[in-house]
């Protein structure tokens, strides 16, 4: 192993520039002659637009242009798309309403984009935006996920009767119902998966820049997938042909999914840059982020789990309503379907699973993938109902799980919900987590808490997720509009250092370090001589970007494949120079050696020879620069057990997490420190969802009531304990690194672990996320009152 | 933010003059409420008069029976003051629990009480200790100072110069922070001193108020157990997405008991 290769706790190469304030974010980019955009947003959740009067705004100081939906229509820009087609139970396609870049005749949520002002300064743009006079005809707002499809709800989109986008199912309902007939016990739960606002630290931003000389456009933007953004802007939004459009996503401060999508503002900036022939910049204020960044989750679900008398799972059925918000977003149809229902088998051998999902429109911010994307929702449903079943059956929740786990000798394991798991040892993670959490000592700690007037609970979450998205053919077969392979280019420079281009994008994940470790390990070059380049469509091959914990499993694999080509070519060059047969050349730790001799060249010398090919094999091209496009064989399936232990103050309802244990199987771990950081962050997001993050809309007006950090509770360091984080390893046999991905696991596992601990402490399942102090207090009070009776 | 004229006078007289000559002037101490309000375009003053340049307004002095804090003294300075901590520990603790480090290093006591946010911490100490507010015109007793939600007895051109807190025999402050903003969702300041027992509640109602029933009970028996008999009505209390009036009323009782326990050490 190279000194800083796979497995090393290497400090992140990218951190020095961030720590000294030398990161280069979109808002740091300023182009010569730059103008500024401000957006006029709907103050109403649901309204028709009678007219838009821009005259006063257009005459305001510094204003270059004011655009409305009419200008967008005239230039044939957009509309924004959803890239995943879902077919309803009855065979009909999903109902996709138009989502124009600027509203045309109607607005469907507070914050919807109505007009755009471009002015010399940011203040002038904002001043003028206030002068745009929009005449609205207000309509009743639809807010509730559960009631959006009721007959009495206002109709939001003409194409979507009963505000229903699709009514989809997976599995055979009759077959599953039949299995329920034979059940000894059925556990039923109704659950809410609360809506979340992503809140990346860096708000979205864009600079559109037009070059008249080449008639080409550049968009600097906060994107997790700049190539995909270019493709969408070009092929679907008609901004410019791909070869005349460059998308640059430089340093990006967090995404969590919210920066996958191509939004109105970014599109409008690059479109307007050509129209005003000036660079056009927009940076979201935090208030705009709350209103217009795609939100996450927002499901209501009823689930039934059927068991035999021993607690063996026989079947599960699940009915979910998923809120899409006011419009569809780029992948919003995939999240509550193929990212969700396909994970409902979890770690268990449940032979029959049926899921139906109705996706509804409401007058709220559009919902799309957010850290975990469908898999946290699936894990929450499954792990809540399993824990509840254990309580109803009078069984230890760990034992009930153990009884139903897929065993290590059953892989590859085909679930009833599409996926075939490659490998895993779920019992090993469960055992290790229980040991670290001292599950055996819990009853003693509970008694101690009771003596102190506190309620103590412990809860499990045995999660699995499908990452490394994804085999392109599988994606296509399920309705996805793209291929989800990844590309990498490994370029040796003549002096022996290496520039690696990846199609993935890092916005906090530490790829510049992790990927350098992979390359160092494979090619024997020190990490300091390896530069990882990403985030610019003019650099390196087309790539699909970063989301769904895919970067190492797909992007890392692509790098390894390119590295294999480097080694193969290097072997030919070394064989020629060392005057040996190619098959006699061994490559280890950066050296090409003639087997059984001390004749050797290091890879840097080979690279030099490739660029200065004086003594060079016939028929071999000069240069040492290889590209690989890697399409994965399957999803990867990280899994693990999280155990949360918490204490409730029944006087106030305040919950304190006193112990949190995470044992994850991510396959091969490249950099344990970075992986632990990812797990920590994910758990904090999951704890936030479970206990404090509430996205509240006024049920009448549809106004976002939690539109700032004064009201939206982001978890902070003092809301969580120090975590006990450990791993078990079953290396994936399906990719060259044996990796699975780690970015979302914490957010997927934690909500169920926390809520299972909370319901254990309270002695009832009747509490929803977020379990705020008042909600907990009310349940604790009613439990105490019941106990007194 | 809209455009405004910025002034940083060096004396109270210059500040008053700037305020009086402005069409719609606004005084700024630490700016921890005003600046976010301006940034969100929720206010459009013609002039902002920054009191931070008036040196005489800042500082802490402790005599035998009073702690005097200048109007522009930062929360962090009060929290870090050994003199305050030994004279009125609950006051130092309160200051150390306001907002976050950034807020504590910019926010001031004068700004806080002049703004009289219903969920601010300082008004409960001013009322709960029976402090006296000094201005450029007069001295105002705490009981007369806080007149309603975001309203005080201050005249248009009146500037707070400092607050004088009588040193009590004992005092305590416990709050239930709003999980998002960490303002007081309910905060209760209790004290026992020369003026008797005072219980001031912030966060729960539209304006900081004294809890007469608790004061009556604690006057006879200054113990948390004595409060068990005191109910707090939810009538008129705040209700929002974070807490119902009923929950706030319940928390008033819990925070009061904990504050008394803290005061009793």
Folded structure, characterized:
The complex is a heterodimer of chains A (789) and B (265). By secondary structure, chain A is of the alpha+beta class. Chain A folds into three domains: 31-139 and 201-254 and 259-292, Aldehyde Oxidoreductase, domain 3, CATH 3.90.1170.50; 392-466 and 635-788, 2-Layer Sandwich (Aldehyde Oxidoreductase, domain 4); 485-630, 2-Layer Sandwich (Aldehyde Oxidoreductase, domain 4). Helix content of chain A is 28%, strand content 23%. A seven-stranded mixed β-sheet of chain A has the order 3-5-1-12-9-10-11, sandwiched between helices. In chain A, a hairpin with a 5-residue loop joins β23 (591-594) and β24 (600-602). In chain A, α9 (375-393) crosses α10 (397-404), α9 packs parallel to α18 (745-762) and α14 runs parallel beside α15 (551-577). The longest helix of chain A is centred in the C-terminal third of the chain and has 27 residues, at 551-577. Chain A starts with 14 loop residues before the first helix and ends with a helix. The relative contact order of chain A is 0.12. With 265 residues, chain B is of the alpha+beta class. Among the domains of chain B are: 1-55, Uridine Diphospho-n-acetylenolpyruvylglucosamine Reductase, domain 2 (2-Layer Sandwich), CATH 3.30.43; 170-263, 2-Layer Sandwich (Enolase-like, domain 1), CATH 3.30.390.50. Chain B is built from eleven helices and 14 strands. Chain B has helices at 12-21, 34-39, 75-80, 82-87, 89-96, 101-106, 109-115, 122-128, 142-145, 212-220, 245-263, and strands at residues 5-7, 25-28, 47-50, 60-62, 66-70, 132-135, 139-141, 146-148, 151-152, 160-166, 170-177, 184-193, 196-202, 209-210. Chain B has a five-stranded antiparallel β-sheet. Chain B has a four-stranded antiparallel β-sheet with strand order 11-12-13-14, with helices on both faces. In chain B, strands 1-3-2 form a three-stranded parallel β-sheet, covered by helices on one side. The longest helix of chain B has 19 residues, at 245-263. The radius of gyration of chain B is 18 Å and the shape is globular. The mean pLDDT of chain B is 97. Classes of the chains: A alpha+beta (789), B alpha+beta (265). The A-B interface holds A 123, 126-127, 130, 287, 651-652, 692, 694, 696, 705-706, 709-714, 772-774, 777-778 and B 1-3, 40-41, 176, 179-181, 241-244, 247, 250-251, 254.
């Amino acid at each position: 192993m190279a000194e800083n290769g796979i497995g090393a706790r290497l400090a992140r190469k990218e951190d020095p520039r961030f720590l000294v304030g030398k990161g280069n974010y979109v808002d740091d980019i300023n182009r010569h002659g730059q103008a500024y955009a401000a957006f006029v947003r709907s103050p109403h959740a649901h309204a028709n637009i009678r007219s838009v009067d821009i005259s006063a705004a257009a005459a305001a100081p510094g204003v270059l242009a004011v655009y409305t939906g009419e200008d967008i229509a005239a230039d044939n820009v957009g509309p924004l798309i959803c890239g995943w087609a879902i077919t309803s139970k009855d065979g009909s396609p999903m109902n996709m309403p138009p989502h124009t870049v600027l509203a045309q005749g109607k607005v469907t949520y507070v914050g919807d984009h109505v007009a755009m002002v471009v002015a010399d300064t940011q203040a002038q743009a904002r001043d003028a935006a206030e002068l745009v006079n929009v005449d609205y005809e207000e309509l009743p707002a639809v807010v509730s996920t559960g009631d959006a499809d009721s007959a009495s709800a206002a109709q939001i989109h003409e194409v979507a009767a009963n505000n229903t986008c699709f009514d989809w199912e997976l599995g055979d309902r009759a077959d599953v119902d039949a299995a329920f007939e034979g059940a000894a016990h059925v556990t039923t739960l109704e659950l809410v998966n609360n809506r979340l606002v992503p809140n990346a630290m860096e708000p979205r931003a864009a600079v559109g820049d037009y070059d008249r000389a080449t008639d080409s456009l550049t968009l600097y933007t906060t994107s997790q997938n700049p190539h995909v953004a270019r493709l969408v802007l070009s092929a679907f939004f008609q901004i410019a042909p791909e070869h005349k459009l460059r998308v640059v996503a430089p340093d990006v401060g967090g995404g969590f999914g919210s920066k996958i999508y191509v939004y109105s503002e970014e599109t409008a900036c690059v479109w307007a840059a050509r129209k005003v022939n000036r660079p056009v910049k927009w940076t979201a204020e935090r208030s705009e982020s709350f209103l217009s960044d795609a939100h996450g989750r927002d499901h209501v679900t009823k689930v039934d789990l059927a068991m035999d008398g021993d607690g063996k799972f026989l079947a599960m059925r699940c009915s979910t309503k998923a809120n899409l918000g006011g419009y569809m977003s780029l992948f919003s149809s995939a999240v509550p379907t193929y990212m969700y229902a396909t994970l409902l088998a979890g770690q268990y051998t449940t032979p029959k699973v049926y899921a139906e999902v109705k996706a509804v429109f409401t007058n709220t911010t559009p919902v799309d993938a957010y850290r975990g994307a469908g898999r946290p929702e699936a894990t929450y449903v499954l792990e809540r109902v399993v824990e509840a079943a254990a309580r109803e059956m009078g069984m230890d929740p760990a034992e009930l799980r153990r009884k139903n786990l897929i065993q290590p000798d059953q892989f590859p394991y085909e679930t009833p919900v599409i996926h075939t798991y490659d490998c895993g040892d779920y019992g090993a993670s469960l055992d290790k987590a229980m040991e670290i959490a001292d599950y055996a000592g819990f009853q003693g700690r509970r008694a101690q808490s009771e003596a102190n007037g506190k309620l103590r609970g412990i809860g499990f979450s045995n999660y699995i997720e499908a990452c490394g998205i994804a085999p392109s053919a599988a994606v296509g077969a399920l309705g996805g509009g793209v291929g989800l392979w990844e590309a990498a280019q490994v370029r040796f420079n003549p002096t022996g250092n290496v520039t690696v281009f990846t199609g993935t994008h890092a916005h906090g994940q530490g790829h510049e370090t992790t990927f350098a470790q992979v390359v160092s390990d494979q090619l024997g070059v020190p990490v300091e001589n390896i530069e990882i380049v990403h985030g610019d469509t003019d650099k390196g091959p087309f790539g699909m970007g970063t989301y769904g914990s895919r970067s190492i499993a797909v992007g890392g694999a692509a790098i390894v494949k390119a590295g294999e080509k480097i080694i193969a070519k290097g072997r030919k060059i070394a064989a020629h120079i060392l005057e040996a047969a190619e098959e006699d050349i061994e490559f280890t730790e950066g050296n090409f050696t003639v087997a059984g001799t001390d004749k050797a060249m290091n890879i840097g010398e080979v690279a030099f020879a490739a660029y200065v090919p004086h003594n060079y094999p016939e028929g071999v091209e000069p240069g040492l620069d290889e590209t690989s496009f890697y399409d994965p064989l399957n999803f990867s399936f990280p899994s693990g057990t999280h155990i949360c232990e918490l204490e409730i103050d029944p006087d106030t309802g305040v919950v304190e997490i006193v112990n949190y244990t995470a044992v994850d199987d991510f396959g091969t771990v490249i950099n344990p420190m970075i992986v632990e950081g990812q797990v920590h962050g994910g758990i904090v997001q999951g704890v936030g969802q479970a206990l404090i993050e509430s996205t509240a809309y006024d049920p009448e007006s549809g106004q976002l009531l939690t539109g700032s950090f004064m009201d939206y509770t982001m978890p902070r360091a003092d809301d969580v304990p120090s975590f006990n984080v450990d791993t078990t390893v079953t290396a994936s046999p399906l990719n060259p690194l044996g990796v699975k991905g780690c970015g979302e696991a914490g957010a997927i596992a934690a909500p169920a672990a926390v809520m299972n601990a909370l319901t254990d402490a309270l002695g009832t399942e009747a509490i929803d996320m977020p379990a705020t102090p008042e909600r907990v207090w009310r349940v604790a009070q009613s439990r105490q009152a019941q106990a007194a009776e | 933010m809209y455009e405004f004229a910025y002034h940083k006078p060096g004396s109270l007289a210059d500040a008053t003059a700037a305020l009086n000559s402005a069409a719609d002037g606004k005084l700024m101490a630490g700016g921890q409420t005003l600046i976010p309000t301006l940034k969100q375009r929720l206010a459009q003053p013609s002039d902002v008069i920054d009191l931070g340049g008036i040196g005489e307004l800042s500082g802490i002095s402790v005599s035998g029976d009073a702690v005097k804090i200048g109007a522009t003294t930062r929360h962090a300075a009060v929290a870090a003051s050994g003199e305050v901590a030994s004279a009125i520990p609950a006051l130092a603790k309160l200051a150390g629990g306001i907002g976050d480090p950034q807020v504590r290093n910019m926010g001031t006591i004068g700004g806080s009480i002049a703004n009289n946010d219903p969920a601010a911490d300082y008004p409960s100490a001013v009322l709960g200790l029976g402090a006296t507010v000094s201005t450029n015109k007069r001295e105002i007793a705490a009981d007369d100072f806080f007149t309603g939600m975001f309203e005080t007895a201050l005249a248009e051109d009146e500037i707070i110069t400092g607050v004088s807190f009588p040193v009590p025999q004992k005092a305590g402050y416990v709050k239930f922070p709003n999980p998002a903003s960490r303002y007081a969702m309910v905060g209760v300041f209790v004290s026992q001193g020369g003026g008797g027992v005072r219980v001031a509640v912030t966060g729960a109602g539209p304006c900081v108020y004294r809890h007469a029933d608790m004061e009556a009970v604690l006057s006879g028996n200054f113990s948390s157990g004595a409060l068990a008999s005191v109910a707090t009505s939810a009538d008129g209390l705040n209700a929002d997405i974070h807490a119902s009036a009923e929950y706030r009323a319940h928390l008033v009782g819990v925070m009061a008991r904990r504050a008394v326990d803290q005061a009793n050490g």
